[in-house]
Amino acid sequence: MNRAALIFAGLLIIAFPLSLLAGRVWVDPSSTPNAALILMELRLPRSILAMVIGAGLGAAGAAMQGYLRNPLADPGLFGIAPMAALGAVISFWFGYSASAYLLPSFALLGAGAGMAMLALIAGRTSAGTGGGIALFTLAGLMIASLAGALTALAITLSPNAFALSEIVLWLNGALTDRSWREVMIAVPCVAAGLLLLTLASKPLDAMTLGQEAAQSLGVRPAALLWLLVGGVGLTVGASVAVAGIIGFVGLIVPHLVRPFTDRLPSSLILPSALAGALLVLVADSAVRVLPLVTELRLGIALSLIGAPFFLHLLLKMRRGRI
Amino acid sequence: MSLAASNISVQGRLDGVSVQLEPGQITAICGPNGAGKSTLMSCLAGLLVPDSGSASLGGEPLATLNPQRRAQMIGYLPQDGEVAWDVAVRNLVALGRLPHRDRGEKAIEAALEAVHLTQFADRPISTLSGGEKARALLARVFAGEPDWVLADEPLAALDFYHQHEVLASLHASAKLGAGVALVLHDLALAMNHADRVLVLKGGRLIADGPPETALDEANIIQTWGVAARWVGEPGARALVTS
After folding, report:
1. Which pLDDT does position A127 carry in this prediction?
2. B78 and A210: CB-CB below 8 Å?
3. Are A129 and A212 in contact (CB under 8 A)?
4. DSSP state of A278
5. Measured between CA atoms, how close is A112 to chain B, in angstroms?
6. ipTM for the complex?
7. Residue A101 neighbours by CB under 8 Å, 6+ apart
8. What average pLDDT does range B231-236 have in this prediction?
């Protein structure tokens, strides 16, 4: 475990118990009525879910930035999150969202379809030198664009006002009212995704030198692509399936972590998972505490932080400091 | 073991090139822009499968060789020396050990020493000059202790002193039994330092032999279209345009 991982693990250990207590009503285990019930059935699953989702998004961001050799890359760009969202929107459209497992199942199916399309289009050329990464990015953008268009169509043709409001609210991701059921869905997917991304970490180090040099170091481009599509698909797909669209985590987190590491992707993935868990946990606690009439959606809060951060990165890049 | 290309063609880039490179030698690959030098290097490094013909190492086709095993035996330095992240020089050089899956501290130190970068080992790559960065990238290849060093224009960014120092390191590698193949644009460097020169033009192999014959004045005018003559003693020759 490197220095960055230790720092973010330490912060997470401090933040986790605080997040259990934080909320519109601060829980005092000794005096709040039904404190144990509130903690066990509401706060604990929500905090765990925040950490699981954040870990997946953070690690996926670190891996994608390593693969594309670009600090502005975000896993959301590659079509998997919009496809998962499309799957979920379809379940709302047909009224399946009332069923406990159908909404996340549809979202996971959407993510799977996005992964399959990405691998089919980009995988064909990844065996040769050059072109593979550019095609991967373009394929992802095309899938994201298609999924976005179909989602907009579903909203436009929404069967009733209730479905419309459900879709729009859900697209602005949140962890409100999530339970152990969502934790059970997300944990195995994110764990499998993190395993795949960890397996990709050394080949991603080689990608620091470009695709041709990486191949000369023994990296199999097609195998790396499959690991990434699987890893990003499972982590991002599971996140969208249980919480809706939560953007910018994969973009912001690797930047926060990078200065504490040797900057190679292999030393970034685990700390980014921990820092992602911390960011989403803290952000979700903050939206619960904010004194607003209705709880601010987590996806909106993170976008409000993420958009200026992205602009800051762009300006830094223009000055040659990245 | 020898590295060979057997009648390889890549559409629009290489046309029926056959060559057998021997270890213990420095082979220079020369030719005008677009002659197919980098394509030939990619094929010999096992990174590009030719449309026809095959490249092999010790008789084993590179296309079927395990990529990790191939990477342990062939170190390749591409022309594009881009480094995506601002890593420390030592960590960059350590990437050369990836095919071996070990830390290889001694090999990394020796590689840094060979390119005179030991004192810069802990500096971020962004603080290095172009020439220092080129040497760090070459050290990455040396760190893998490959049987073959294939480098595409490794001397282009180096000053006069470091060109000769890096060539001395490559000579030392060749003396220890490694095979070295370099794409070179400086014909004088090829003449004075290579044991063998391949001349490519329009994807075809025009000449193959000792530098004195492969780079004789007739071949130079036929390949580059420039009338030039060699002056000076063997080992210290200069090319003068007529």
Report:
1. 45
2. yes
3. yes
4. H
5. 29
6. 0.93
7. A181, A185
8. 91
